[in-house]
Design goal:
Blueprint lengths: L1 E9 L12 H12 L8 E7 L2 E8 L6 H21 L23 E8 L5 E8 L7 H9 L6 H4 L7 E7 L8 E6 L3 H8 L5 E8 L5 E5 L4 H5 L9 E5 L7 H5 L7 E4 L5 E4 L1 E3 L13 E10 L2 E2 L3 E2 L4 H18 L17 H13 L6
Parallel strand pairs: 13-14
Antiparallel strand pairs: 1-3, 1-4, 2-3, 5-10, 5-14, 6-7, 6-8, 8-9, 9-10, 11-12, 14-15, 14-16
Helix pairs in contact: 1-2, 3-5
The structure holds 1,3-dihydroxyacetonephosphate (2 copies) and magnesium ion (2 copies).
One 1,3-dihydroxyacetonephosphate binds next to loops.
């Protein structure tokens, strides 16, 4: 059976700053989506990672369906009303347009969706990150799909022997989707040369070269490209099919034990280590650290299982302690050097104006 799995997520307001949505807001989003379940969609699951609410849906309308996107948009609009009633911080933060126009892409919410021919067993992972941007997935995806140091199946399994095709987007290009396709293992150095730059080049999708099937898809939205100013981080979501011709679940999770440094953290303007967290986690220290959750599901005839919370295991407690240490260490140097993002990535208008004013006060000596 052909099934489309769609994740649409948005920050539509949170309690006590950028910490988490309220229970009432979540209930409001859930009940709106539930009212359409069995009609437009087959199944759904609503969760949050930090202040971002993600609606995971299965349906048969394919990628980019008006009806499905409108359903999510309307659920977020309903949630925003509730956020306003409760006086939540940043109510409607990611709904950047006043009215829905066919597709939520380019309207603020992040989207990752794939149409698949369901395997007899169809396990997949749903990742959601907060206080960071889409480039946060570059390194884990590279390691899980192209490096046998992380994916032993690249050596051990005949199902992955041909490797994977990476589709990489140039997110600095705003006129449309500018993409390049590169094959691992032959073009690994080219893939690495692009993916090292997390702010410019972002993994958009990955395909199996054994079967041609889609393996992974990530959201690539850059909110400030849409709004023209900082409105919040681009907190990305990603879907990854696992087992069989794809990395095993554990191989896909492995690179998240690095806690690699990514852009985000306080005011979307700093560098912090990406911490793997449990489902429905909140945000705390210095509006961070940047976090990522991973929920494992199976889908069959369009129906989802309950999620298995992939980072809810004693091993990841140990990783979280190590990542906390990395977060503390980089925070000790405050605004200095690498702890804060370079000027080109600073999202707050304030510093841009400040530097503009200071620029006029510079004098060139001897003139
Ligand atoms: P496959 O079933 O995808 O070959 O994976 C084997 C496995 O269990 C690896 O952990
Ligand atoms: P969010 O993008 O998660 O709302 O965070 C914004 C921010 O400025 C945190 O300090
Ligand atoms: Mg927020
Ligand atoms: Mg957020």
């Amino acid at each position: 059976m052909k099934t489309t799995v769609s994740i649409i997520k948005a920050d539509i307001g949170s309690v006590g700053g950028h910490i988490c949505p309220s229970q009432r807001l979540l209930e409001c989003v859930k009940s709106h989506v539930a009212s359409q379940c069995g009609r437009i969609i087959n199944d759904f699951f609503v969760s949050h990672t930090g202040d971002d609410v993600a609606i995971l849906m299965t349906h048969t309308h394919g990628v980019g369906s008006d009806e499905v996107h409108k359903l999510a948009w309307d659920a977020f609009v309903a949630g925003t009303e509730c956020a306003k009633e409760q006086g939540l911080y940043g109510a409607g933060q990611d709904l950047l347009k006043d009215s829905f126009s066919g597709n939520v892409k380019g309207m603020g919410p992040a989207v990752a969706e794939m149409e698949i021919e369901e395997r007899p067993n169809e396990p997949f992972l749903f990742f959601a990150a907060d206080k960071t941007d889409p480039g946060a997935y570059n390194l884990p995806v590279y390691l899980a799909f192209a490096d046998p140091m992380y994916n032993s199946g690249l050596i051990l399994s005949p199902n992955m022997a041909k490797g994977f095709k990476f589709c990489i987007m140039d997110v600095a290009y705003t006129e449309g989707d500018r993409l390049i396709e590169l094959n691992a293992p032959e073009e690994m150095y080219d893939i690495a040369a692009l993916l090292r730059d997390n702010e410019r080049f972002v993994v958009e999708s990955v395909y199996s070269r054994e079967t041609g099937e889609i393996a992974a898809v990530a959201s690539t939205t850059r909110l400030h490209n849409i709004a023209g100013k900082y409105t919040g981080k681009d907190d990305p979501v990603m879907l990854v099919r696992v087992q069989g011709a794809f990395p095993a679940t554990g191989e896909m999770l492995h690179p998240f034990n690095i806690g690699h440094y990514v852009a985000g953290f306080m005011r979307g303007s700093h560098t912090g280590p990406l911490m793997p967290v449990k489902m429905n986690s909140t945000i705390s220290f210095f509006d961070g650290p940047p976090v990522v959750s991973a929920l494992a599901f199976c889908v069959h005839n369009g129906k989802l299982t309950e999620p298995a919370d992939a980072f809810d295991h004693p091993y990841w407690e140990y990783v979280r302690a190590q990542v906390s240490r990395k977060a503390t260490e980089i925070r000790q140097q405050g605004f200095s050097g690498l702890a804060m993002l370079p000027y080109s990535e600073l999202e707050y208008g304030g510093i841009v104006q400040k530097l503009g004013k200071l620029d006029k006060k510079f004098v060139v000596k001897g003139k």
